[in-house]
Write a structure and sequence with these properties.
The complex is a heterodimer. By secondary structure, chain A is of the alpha+beta class. Chain A has 15 helices and 20 strands. By secondary structure, chain B is of the alpha/beta class. Chain B contains 10 helices and 12 strands. In chain B, a hairpin with a 4-residue loop joins strand 2 and strand 3. The N and C termini of chain B lie far apart (51 Å). The chains are: A alpha+beta, B alpha/beta. At the A-B interface, helix 13 of A face helix 5 and helix 6 of B.
């Protein structure tokens, strides 16, 4: 048996061996290599259906890995510079929830920025952990929440020496990074674990010149969306752990909520993508950055739009910037980000990642072609020519710092009543309100509803943001504490 | 020995030409380029295996894509040609003395080199002093142009591959911006016959209609293109292709043509009912 290296992909190799064995299936899935569901097989392809199989000895079991999955996880850990790595099949959402459930029991405090993904606040509802929010710095011009400033983290630690962990969102959706190394030092000096939502940072581990990774900064646990910049299938993700984390206990935590029928499509996609990035990540991400930089300079040349980059760096709340991100501030052309987002799709058949009130984000990856980048730039130029206005009536949008009055879990499970949005000011919300994407809550359970927030929600709805999270699917009513 | 060039016109229809010998084969950054010689069609150029032109029937395409807009515009001086690295459109354009400058934007330099070497029939006027060649993506080039051209000719390949961007709304919008207030854009508009080509034709017509106040379609018969029935788009800010057309004025120029004439100009805009219907569906 030769030793495994990054050229191997143990799960992928096992699936290929398994396919050659032509095993007769008297187990699930019931489609039996696709033969039992021909329409689906025609749509997805026979190759795909052939490897949609169940856990079994030759293919290992994600809940209790002892062979090929264990090997694949070991290779992934090596590739990411982690002590241990787990394959995740419930999206980075499940990775984020697992790391919080590992670090906190009911009543434990966790320091986190308020602009986290909903998955983190969901985990607070599940565990009963109590958030200590560090309000992120805000860039007033762009209206976006930034990273955590070190001094604010210091203050939060001082005021809450009993907190069990600090969670950092790094990089943010917009590509903004905090001073992860310094925050990790501070946290460790006070006996706290550092959990990093690194959903948008897979490429930091493989490309040159990117901001520091969670593992390199010495953080304890990181959730990495391999399916974003890493090229694996949607919903597949990695959970990375440093030396201080008990991986076997972590597996038990993950198994509390994870499926027992993990999809081998997802697992093999993680395995193959890890191999690909380990072998050629440098070139792949150099190309991505080159395209992003080109698009940025061309978009800035159009005038009005502002495609921002490293010039925002301020040494603290914007400690670093991910140049593979193409984030563009659109208000100067008189259009909300969400309007540009909709126009790109409806008028020009171009789908971008998201638009918020003031910004859009176009996701650039190695799968992009130069000519598609040209189309995006031209479409933005045309949108300015055809739809641009003087930016008079735009809501000067800013991140709204929430007032937390109850722990999320307490508020979520409390007795509540439904009231019309307009009459909800001054009450405590018991549910989420957010635009998706990016899925960062405007309101989370336990937070005070203010006039300002109601106005923001109304404006975002009017501009066409896709609002989610509330029981009332139309967001006309909110559930509040009785 | 028999050597045949075959292009798949649909999954169920092939078109073949017996090849005498192959003159060139090479790959550029963008595509595979081949030049063949044949008894029936003379030399012909293919890109990624798709027929671009043959010596025998290229005059139809090049005359129709060039003379129609040039005859409608009263004083075309500054011309932009996108694609057309084979030089056929430029050859026709250089016959107009009113023309002061021709900007040719071709993404693939190798197409021009190969054409100069093997296709002198079309590439013969690329050295005319009014011609400026830019090797660049047309979508990018035109983004920066404003109120600059009288006529834009979009001699694109198909709506897949490197020419894809030349069938998009952002491109047509950029062309509108690049034209003067009475400018005309003409484009290669695919065929209405086979289902897939027809869908591309409709998509592109819809986008042009949304970008220009006047948008008409005209036809020609091109034997080596799928189905032989080919369309061109005439998009204009001011001039109607038939009502504002002055045949005598064009005849006075004394340009000798093999396909185009003033009666055919008007006739080409009369389309079969099924084509009219397809166009109406997206207007």
């Amino acid at each position: 048996m030769t030793e495994l290296s990054q050229v191997n992909a143990p799960i992928y190799e096992a699936l290929r061996r398994f396919r050659r064995m032509r095993v007769v299936p008297f187990d699930v899935p019931g489609h039996k290599r696709g033969r039992g569901n021909m329409e689906l097989t025609e749509f997805l392809g026979e190759d795909c259906m052939n490897v949609d199989v169940n856990s079994m000895k030759p293919l290992d079991n994600l809940c209790h890995p002892v062979s090929v999955i264990k090997d694949a996880e070991m290779l992934a850990a090596q590739a990411f510079g982690a002590a241990n790595a787990f394959f995740m099949v419930g999206g980075t959402t499940s990775a984020v929830q697992s790391m919080i459930m590992y670090a906190c029991k009911e009543g434990d405090k966790i320091i986190m920025p308020r602009n986290v993904h909903r998955s983190a606040i969901n985990a607070l509802i599940l565990t009963g952990a109590v958030p200590v929010y560090v309000n992120p710095d805000v860039n007033k011009q762009l209206g976006i929440a930034l990273g955590m400033s070190v001094s604010q983290v210091e203050q939060a630690i001082r005021e809450n020496p009993d907190a069990k962990a600090i969670m950092v969102n790094n990089p943010t959706y917009y590509g903004i990074c905090s001073d992860l190394s310094r925050i990790t030092e501070l946290a460790h000096a006070h006996g706290m674990l550092v959990l990093v939502d690194e959903a948008h940072g897979t490429h930091f581990y493989f490309g040159d010149g990117f901001p520091v990774t969670a593992m390199a900064a010495g953080a304890d646990i990181a959730s990495v969306s391999m399916h974003k910049s890493g090229g694996s299938l949607t919903q597949s993700s990695f959970l990375l752990m440093g030396e201080r984390v008990n991986a076997d206990y972590m597996r038990q935590v993950i198994n509390l909520t994870q499926t027992t029928s993990a999809s081998y499509l997802l697992l093999s996609s993680l395995d193959i993508s890890r191999k690909r990035l380990a072998l050629s990540g440098k070139e792949i991400f150099a190309q991505t950055v080159e395209m992003a930089e080109y698009a940025r300079s061309e978009i800035n040349d159009i005038g009005g739009y502002y495609a921002y980059s490293r010039e925002l760096i301020n040494g603290d709340s914007i400690f670093d910037f991910d140049v593979s991100k193409l984030s563009v501030f659109t208000l100067p052309v008189g259009l909300a980000g969400i309007e540009v987002y909709d126009l790109l799709r409806d008028e020009y058949d171009i789908q971008i990642e998201f638009g918020d009130i003031g910004n859009i984000l176009a996701y650039i990856s190695v799968g992009d072609r130069k000519r598609d980048i040209e189309r995006l730039i031209s479409a933005m130029s045309e949108i300015k020519r055809r739809f641009g206005r003087t930016g008079a009536d735009m809501l000067s949008h800013e991140y709204i710092a929430p007032v937390v009055t109850e722990a999320p879990r307490k508020a979520f499970y409390a007795d509540k009543v439904s009231v019309p949005l307009e009459e909800s000011a001054g009450k405590v919300c018991t549910e989420f309100v957010m635009c998706y994407p990016p899925g960062i809550p405007i309101l989370a359970p336990g937070e005070l509803i203010t006039k300002e927030i109601i106005e923001y929600i109304r404006y975002a709805k009017e501009k066409g943001c896709q609002m989610t999270g509330t029981e009332d699917i139309n967001i006309e009513r909110l559930n509040v504490l009785k | 020995m028999e050597l045949w060039f075959t292009e798949r016109h649909t999954p169920n229809v092939n078109f073949s030409i017996k090849v005498d010998h192959q003159l060139y084969s090479g790959n550029s950054e963008f595509q595979r380029i081949d030049v063949f010689d044949s008894k029936e069609f003379g030399r012909f150029l293919t890109l990624d295996g798709y027929m671009m032109l043959t010596e025998k029937d290229e005059f139809i395409y090049h005359e129709m894509i060039t003379h129609v807009p040039m005859a409608v515009h009263p004083n075309p001086r500054n011309i932009l040609v996108i694609g057309a690295g084979d030089g056929g459109v430029v050859r026709e354009l250089t016959r107009y003395t009113s023309v002061e400058s021709i900007d040719l934007v071709e993404i693939d330099e190798l197409v021009v080199e190969v054409s100069k070497k093997y296709l002198p029939t079309t590439a013969c006027r690329l050295d005319d002093e009014r011609v400026h060649i830019y090797y660049e993506d047309g979508v990018k080039f035109i983004r920066r142009c404003e109120n600059k051209y009288d006529v834009i000719i979009v001699d694109s390949t198909d709506p897949f591959g490197p020419g894809e961007g030349l069938f998009t709304k952002e491109f047509y919008g950029s062309c509108f911006k690049a034209l003067r207030e009475d400018g005309i854009m003409v484009n290669q508009h695919e065929s209405p016959f086979y289902a897939e080509d027809a869908a591309a034709m409709q998509r592109s017509h819809k986008r042009i209609v949304e970008s220009f106040p006047i948008s008409r379609v005209y036809q020609a018969h091109i034997p080596t293109y799928p189905s032989g029935h080919w369309l061109f788009g005439f998009a204009s800010k001011k001039y109607h292709p038939v009502r504002d057309y002055e045949p005598t004025k064009w005849s006075m120029l004394g340009i000798k043509t093999k396909y185009y004439n003033t009666k055919l100009h008007c006739g080409a805009f009369a389309l079969p009912n099924y084509v009219e219907e397809m166009l109406r569906d997206v207007e």
